[in-house]
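User: quick one, fold this
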Amino acid sequence: MFIVAAEICLMLYESNTLKEKRQVIKSIINRIKSRFNVSIAEVDFLDSWKRAQLGIACVSNDKAHANSVITSVINFLEKDFRFEITDIQVRIE
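Assistant:
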């Protein structure tokens, strides 16, 4: 069994309230859950208007497949104009 986990930090420049930030983050999480078979949650900067950190994990019996899924999620996030990715850390266990 292989686990590929990613921590992705986001900067939301257009967000002016926590409500606006949470709408964007909730939308991102729901879109990724429906498109990819991964676990995802907001894991840090919960009270910050402009920053968010997402934790994403994929479990598979094939290391290459799990890594490919996480890479696809990252590519999907990079195409979204509502935020900028400031940091990505990927771990394979």
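User: anything notable?
Assistant: The two ends are 9 Å apart (CA to CA).
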